[in-house]
Amino acid sequence: MSNTYGGWHPQDSSPGQPPYGQPPHGQPHGQQQPYGQQPQQDPYGQVPQSGQAGQPLDPYGPRDPYGRPANPYGRPDYQPPQYPHGGFQQQAAPPQQPLALRPVEAEPEPRPDDAPPTIGRAWGWAWGAFGASWGTWVLMSLALGAAQIAVVLLFSPSTLDGLMNSTDQAALDAAQAAGQTLEAKALGAAGTAITFLLQALLYAGALAATRTRTVRIRDFFFLRGFGGLLAYALLAGVIGFVSAAVPVVGGLIQAVCTLLLLPVPFLLLRRVGFGRALGGGVGLVLSHLGTALGVFGIFAGLAIASIFTCGIGLVVVAPVMLLVGAYLVQRWTGETVRS
């Protein structure tokens, strides 16, 4: 009988429920769960497999450690994916092939010209070399030509007076008379020597073209063997003085010396030495006299023709003829020329 005042009697316990303070049926005394602790779980935190006592049956069958169905389609031949130790790992990206770079094709180097030297071959090579750097050649020819004209006028006062008083006949006669004195001729010879030193810059450019074909501004200022060039400039001044002092014979002497000494400036720029350059230059001309006469005649004819263009044609004629001379001297002495 129950206590109507809320008391409790053992008879009120529901069937199968152990009395308060007693362990459940089937659990020995002293092994009950302490108060406040959760029931024991799987030490690895895994969910009990389906089919165990007290768990509902999973319709997809057993699951893997990540909670995914081991056989989601119920196929008897299904094999779950195998993962390496430590879980799923991303597959390594396939190795990439290195980017193949197209090799840069180098420009073919100019070949040396080993053909027998002739005027035609020298002329063709000279025009090709001039065309390869025509802007540089024209610029240097104009600059050096203007400098040479300034030197001639500066060292020939009578010529300058005649140009300034071209309409006054009396002034012209006085200027011509002043130009016939020895002092005026000596001063003009000094101007000739200086003009050769300026022209030596073009010789240096022509000799550089035989090695590289194309030239730059700095190539004109590599005056190797400057001592020999200075001595040759004095010799050119002496020849100029003789040609001015002796009107007819002097002009002939100057023409012969110019022909025989054509190779000398190129040899001096190769540091041959003044004495050896003089002897070697004369020997080269005598050994190839026909070719030397042909070159000299062509140059003289083109120089005369340039008079009708007020000297402008010399801007092209002078560099080309110097290139012809450089080609022949290099080939006559056994040197190669870039074609």
From TrEMBL:
The chain crosses the membrane at residues 137-156, 186-209, 221-242, 248-269, 281-300, 306-329. The keyword Transmembrane applies. It comes from Promicromonospora sukumoe. It comes from the Bacteria. Residues 27-49 have a biased composition (Low complexity). This is Putative membrane protein. Residues 16-26 have a biased composition (Pro residues). Residues 1-96 are annotated as: Disordered. Keywords: Membrane, Transmembrane, Transmembrane helix.
